[in-house]
Design goal:
Number of domains: 1
Order of helices and strands: HEHHEHEHHHEHEH
Number of helices: 9
CATH class: Alpha Beta
Number of strands: 5
Low-confidence stretches: 5-11, 16-23
Radius of gyration: 21 Å
Shape: globular
Structural class: alpha/beta
CATH superfamily: SGNH hydrolase
Oligomer: single chain
Distance between the termini: 43 Å
Strand content: 5-15%
């Protein structure tokens, strides 16, 4: 009996130590990068980073900035976060959630005759360009990268309606990039907005409404939970 009791006591101690080890596990670290898609609805704490933070129960650091793109070369732009590639911050990140490229095409070439700009963003094979380089930097720290696409226009007179074709080409290349690295996921939002449904968009018909941000965050969360 004494020996049995001692054995049980030892097993209980091991169980307690294992439980404490599990409890002491560090919380997930998440960095968000990108443009206004990630920032919209921040005033009501309903932007994508806020929604991820509440759903995951961890602190999410967002470096996303309205108007940001990959093509800014002014020295001050990096400090302002206007260059998405310079939004990255060194850290022991578990996930880096990012988007971007739309402003480069819409503001940079008006979504017309954009082949050179598209190639600078990302090559057809997904291996070269500003986007793969930015993703590679995040991956070098061991973080998994989740690249989020854009909402599609519901066909109700959006100012970016004419950008559909070049936007599809951009995201097709990002999808190719993601398939080459199991640590990179591309989250497409192309099928999220029903035709004629304006409820996913803000009044400008470009940025997401709170409903649109929530729907996008839900897909990001599904990717995170599926990988954990």
């Amino acid at each position: 009996m004494p020996r049995t009791a001692a054995c049980l006591g030892f097993l209980s101690l091991i169980f307690c130590l294992l439980s404490l080890s599990a409890t002491a596990k560090e919380p997930m670290r998440v960095l968000v990068m990108g443009d206004s898609f990630m920032v919209t609805n921040a005033r009501t704490q309903s932007a994508v980073p806020h929604l991820l933070e509440r759903s995951l129960g961890v602190k999410v650091r967002s470096q996303a900035v309205v108007g940001a793109r990959f093509g800014y070369n002014l020295p001050i732009s990096g400090a302002l976060g206007m260059n998405i590639s310079k939004q990255y911050r060194d850290g022991n990140w578990d996930y880096v959630v990012m988007n971007g490229g739309g402003n480069d095409l819409w503001l940079g070439c008006g979504c017309t005759r954009c082949k050179k700009r598209l190639n600078r963003l990302i090559s057809a094979d997904g291996r070269k360009g500003s986007i793969p380089a930015t993703v590679a930097r995040a991956r070098s720290s061991g973080a998994r990268v989740i690249y989020v696409g854009y909402l599609r226009s519901p066909g109700l007179g959006s100012p970016i309606e004419h950008c559909r074709k070049v936007g599809d080409a951009l995201e097709a290349r990002i999808a190719v990039m993601a398939k080459q690295d199991p640590g990179v996921s591309f989250i497409s939002l192309a099928d999220m907005v029903p035709h004629g449904d304006a409820s996913f968009h803000a009044g400008d018909m470009i940025h997401p409404s709170p409903k649109g941000s929530a729907a996008a965050a839900k897909r990001v969360l599904a990717a995170i939970k599926g990988e954990r």
